[in-house]
Each structure stands twice: as structure tokens, then as C-alpha cells.
Give the backbone structure.
Amino acid sequence: SNMTAAMAKKSTIPKPTNAEFKILSVIWDRQSATVREVLNHLKQFEDIGYTTVLKVMQIMTEKGLLKRNAKVKPQLYTAAIPQEKTQGVLLNDLLDRAFKGATGSMVLQLLSTKKASSEELRQIREMIDNQENQK
């Protein structure tokens, strides 16, 4: 049916849950990680066990968020989708839900909530100029 085709097209990237996103963040930082490495990082911030992390990472592999290299011991996991792509999916979702699709409102809210570095501001200005030039 048309509905399923449209839905598949809108987001072929699986949307990570909060727990999955925390794990992805660790793996993006390191390029690849074992379950133990992910666990050791997460344990600094929350009380979490090995089996929980392993289970979530197995689910993430099935969902297509992670790739597993079983040729090495212990097994190494890498992100199946680049950070920017995943952030884009989550951002679009937030934009739709919290800002009714109003990009400007979201950017203004972000900038008023969290100070951007001068380098980030320079990049933002550049992006705004490019967008205006395309009109």
C-alpha cells in the first residue's frame, strides 16, 4: 500500500531509544567498542549490568543500528549508521513534535538555551548566508 511505502521512505533509519542512543554515543566516540567497554563507560553514570548492555546491543544489531564483528574476541561493535544521520532523524522527530516543524523557532530556542562557541556561531552564520543566497 501507499502508506507503507511513504513511511518506509520517510525514515529508513531506525530511531534509537534513549538507552540505545547512550550506547551509540559511546561507540561513535571510539569508532568501535566491546560490550565491556560500553558497560565500563555507562557504569560511571548509572547502575547497569553486563547482561543488560549485551541484550540492548544485540537488539540494536538486529534493528540495524550496530554492526558486530564476530571474527575477533571479544566481539567488536561498530555503528551501522553515521552520527550525523542518526542525529538528523532524531532532530526531525523533535522538530515535528515540539516545534510543529518550525525550524526557526527550534534554532532560536536552542541558541537561547545553550551558548554556542564562536566557531559554531561562525558556521551557523555561514549556513544562514548560504540558505539566503539559494533563495
